[in-house]
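Same chain as my last thread, 352 residues:
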Amino acid sequence: MAVRIAVIGAGAVGGYVGGGLAAAGHDVVLIDPWPAHIEAMRASGLHLSGMTPQETRTVQVRAMHLTEVQSLAKQAPIDYAVIAVKSYDTEWAAAMMLQYLSPTGTLVSLQNCVNEERIAAVAGWGRVMGVVVTGGIAVDLYEPGHIRRNMAKNPAITALYVGEPNGRITSRVRELASMLRDVDRAAETDNLWGERWTKLCVNGMRNGVSAATGMGGNERDSHDAVRRVCIRLGAESVRVGQALGYKLGKIGALDPDVLLHANENDPAALAEIERLMLQGTSGEARSDLQRPSMAQDIAKGRRTEIEFMNGYIAVQGASVDVPAPTHARLTEVVKRVERGELEPRPANVLWN
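reply #2:
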């Protein structure tokens, strides 16, 4: 029988990955709580677009509203339930999908932040896998049924890492990675936790800053003072990750050790980091429309994941006596923006 996949949370990332799998002929159902989005996909398919005309296509998908999930009980069980909801919705999404899994079925975190432990608390470690979406994919759900990729596909960059919490390369890791290669470049990893923290470093130096300032990716990285704040955030998160014992990869295009030196006033290191950050703002690399997910949340009036991202880095740093004060302060600022006490603007992160 064909492998059955359910994506719970068919927003930007979940919808993009699920739509790509459906386009390749895989048995996929997309589940989401936004009625207009479900109705649009049912009526007209899922419209996917990107940085090139070749990426524009409409995919016919099976779409299911959250209130209809119980109908899965009348269907063949799910082999991979891909969780792509916000971090704060992890536990209930895992509990809801667990009951529809096959006997060997797996819950897969396709999320920002570190959520495998939350899923394991619901389902047990044997039923948990992770897929790390690297900085090579930047997408937004800009209207119902329409998802746009705002960074160029790069065949040299692995966009999706698939791994087990225990580091073993199992048959299910190989199977899921093979299917995800129909979406973008995907690879098996024996370093899920290191890849998770590496992506957390990427998000930690970008998402909250864009949420606090209202800046898109290109505008943020082009602003001299704001860019230095991003560098400070990146260095703090690298130090915490190293103290926790994680094996880190490149933070996007940035070498983690060079990033540390850049934050320590090494002129050559700073020049190299800033060169790479500015290089990433070219129109060929990243669209001016690109907004990190947290900035999209602010624009849509939704709750952010700030406490699961920058706040989590600060808490984890405190647990190993490695302060991350910039992350702690940014968490406070974004919460104030989220509550409407502050308007998003660059001054929100320019503390000294």
